[in-house]
Amino acid sequence: MNITLDEKPSTTPSLLRSLQTFFTNPQARAVGLVFTTESLSLGGWVAHIPYVKEKLHLTDAGLGMVLFAMPVGLLLMNPLTGWIIARLGAARTCFLSALVLCFSTLIPINAPNVALMAFGLFLVGLSAALLNVAMNTCAADVEREQKILIMSSCHGMWSLGGMVGSLLAGILIAIHVSPSIHMLAVTIALLLLTVALRPILATIPAQPPTESSAAFVKPNMLLLLMIFIGLAVAMGEGAALDWSAVYLHESTGASSQIAALGFGCFSLAMTIGRFMGDAIIPRFGAKRILSVGSLVAASGLLLAILVPVPLVVLAGFTLLGAGCSLIAPILYTASMRVPGIPAATGLATFATFSFIGFLAGPPVIGFVAEAYGLAYGLGLVVVVLVLSAFISRKVNV
After folding, report:
1. Inter-CA distances, 346 with 12, 131, 135, 352, Å
2. What parts of the sequence cross the membrane (predicted)?
3. Whether residue 247 sits in one domain with residue 384
């Protein structure tokens, strides 16, 4: 039996109109740039993971263990996100968590040992978890107040930041710019952007907090199914983020410059899909997109595994990005419409578990890679994505 969300009236804007609405609306644009800030910070770090892995002489399993520091930070922070946002407001929380994230990414890239690297990643997990919920809350507040659709475009800005960050890293690696200098420059630029956005974010009307909306909740069956789909897609995103460069460099023999493009190709496909999302989701239906998207993502990653040739692997990560592109925006919006659960609580709960997949997935891949090879670690993600495609057919969103 299908499980159904409460119906939500929707319009079907044209692609041009949806993009125009997003980019000409100051509040929507500001929230989108916050999404970009997070992915630029993470994308810059990700491109240099092979460098840090080699510098600290880490094995696949060793790298996976250190990367677990990020989901540990997430697990400690996410149950508190609703409480913090309810008291500080989503806009102020965005500002503060973005500042901490910018500074945190400087630590692992410069860490002289594993302990300091783990501490830096722990701080990244804390701040990214809080920023993730706060910026999605801001996007939902803008949608509710102005009666417009911007969630998919905001996630498109996240993907755009990842793409730009990956391409910039590839260029800087090619001209032998120090990773430390690169991340310092990114941090300074993002700090200036964050300060500039603060006055606009402060104008976004927030939903009045309730006692229940600030609490973490035990998921019901509908939310559990959505969480599994979100976990699967987040694992795919995490695989591209943390392992695409390593897989291209070590399994296909690609140069460091080409390896850095793996996440860039993934993000390019994500960006295009998400900027189209606010127009095509109402037209084709969220349920169909969830199912087809999961299968496309699984097919792309499987292609990268079966044909370990740099250009084919880049094409595979592109398909992975295309398949994953619209699933997160659909589920973030749907998590705020689960019957019997306050909107803010549903969002915080879903974000907690889906972000676990994003951060904990890569370390799990590392453990499997150490025992059986990286291709098998990525193969685990393929299996989970296929399962999510079948589960998507049971959930009407």
Report:
1. 25, 16, 15, 10
2. 61-77, 89-109, 115-135, 156-175, 181-201, 222-246, 258-277, 289-307, 313-332, 344-365, 371-391
3. yes
Would 13 be classed as within a structural domain?
no
Work out the angle between the directed axes of helices 69-88 and 90-104 (0-180°, nearest 10): 150
> Looking at the 3D structure of the chain, how many domains does it have?
2
Q: 205 and 295: one domain?
A: no
Task: Read off the amino acid at residue 83.
Answer: W
Within this chain, do residues 203 and 342 fall inside the same structural domain, yes or no? no
**pLDDT by residue, tens only, the chain of 397 residues:** 455 554 444 455 677 888 888 999 999 999 999 999 998 888 788 778 888 988 999 887 788 788 889 878 888 887 788 788 888 888 899 999 999 999 999 999 999 999 999 999 999 999 998 998 899 889 988 988 898 889 999 999 988 887 788 778 878 888 888 989 999 998 999 999 999 999 999 999 876 655 444 455 677 888 889 999 999 998 898 888 778 888 998 888 888 778 878 887 888 898 899 999 888 888 888 889 999 999 999 999 999 999 999 999 999 999 999 999 999 899 988 888 888 787 777 877 887 777 777 667 777 888 888 888 889 999 999 999 999 999 998 877 7
Domain boundary among the residues 210, 244, 271 is at 210
8 located within any domain: no
Burial 275-310, CB ≥16 within 10 A → b, else e: bbbbbbbeeeebbebbbebbbbbbbbbbbbbeebeb
Find the helix or strand (DSSP H, E) in which 395 lies: strand 395-396
Task: Extract the tokens encoding 133.
Answer: 């919920």
